[in-house]
Amino acid sequence: MSVKTGLRVVVTGATGNVGTSVMRALSGDSRIASVLGLARRVPDLAISRAAWAAVDLAAEDAEEALARHLEDADAVIHLAWRFQPTHSPVTTWRTNVLGSLRLFEAVAAARVPVLVHASSVGAYAPGPKTGPGVDESWPTHGWPDAAYCREKAYLERVLDSYEQQHPEIRVVRMRPAFLFKEGAASEQRRIFAGRFLPGPLIRPGLLPFVPDLEGLRFQVLHTDDAAHAYLMAVLLDARGAFNLAADPVIDAQTLGELLQARVVRVPRRAVHAAVSAAWRVRAVPASPHLFDALTRMPVMSTARAREELEWQPRHTATAALEEFLRGVRKGAGEPTPPLVGHLAH
After folding, report:
1. pLDDT in tens, 1-59
2. Which tens digits make up the pLDDT trace of 226-277?
3. CATH topology of domain 7-182+220-246+298-314
4. Distance in angstroms (rounded) separating the CA atoms of residues 69 and 49
5. Spans of all domains in the chain
6. How far is Cα 79 from Cα 255, in angstroms, rounded to an integer?
């Protein structure tokens, strides 16, 4: 594939877990001339050859700002996503779906030739947990009860039509596994476990046990490795979907070894009931629907990304998880509104 140079790239959701890594990956590559990061709030974060601008994709007047910022752009990487509040799916729909639709139309109106969209393993329909993994042709119907999966799957359908309507735009869909890095630990703790989980508890030897339940096999990737794949998607003439994940697949046994905890077989129904009860009283922000999706998501094959994007993760899945757990214990973060750290207590 030919490699492009001197590119101007715009990144939405640039201050989050993936966004900060993508901004650094782009700015650190000499083939990228400039990078503009869009976010709801401009951060106090300096990255070489990068600029920032405030845009809220959920706002009805976002079109004017997008038209201004996308002018003369060579590529747009769309990462903006709102995980919370899970009790108000209409709120997340406005940002994740309606905001994405605004951006897609703005990309077409500005005649940006490349759109790289952050989809997810969560877009996939339930599938096998063992074997070589599903490729990018696996159905993207998501798990309908989970707003996250429903929204990711809906945008897959939108892009199916979008590609037909705008064949001049090279569309890439990234479908990464769960993404972790130390600097995003505080944000991810807030998103999934809430503020009541004591960080020091996530220390080897302190947890009494790790539950082993049906369907608890999932894939992980270091966020910086995902960022490199986004960079290559901009530079190379790649199209279509790409699965992103690192080895090994994570299961209860792996978690038990990381946390030095016993692995105890637990019925999935019991864990679902506990998560449901905690979510209903707002003790945890992660919904039971997302738990259901996690236990049904297929294992993915990453052969296409490794071949066509010339991509290879530098971190193992266990190394990425270890870094994340260390970050949770330390209350790690970064100087952006989504990633601000908190001291563990």
Report:
1. 567 779 999 999 999 999 999 999 999 999 999 999 999 999 999 999 999 999 999 99
2. 999 999 999 999 999 999 999 999 999 999 999 888 999 999 999 889 989 9
3. Rossmann fold (3.40.50)
4. 16
5. 7-182+220-246+298-314
6. 28
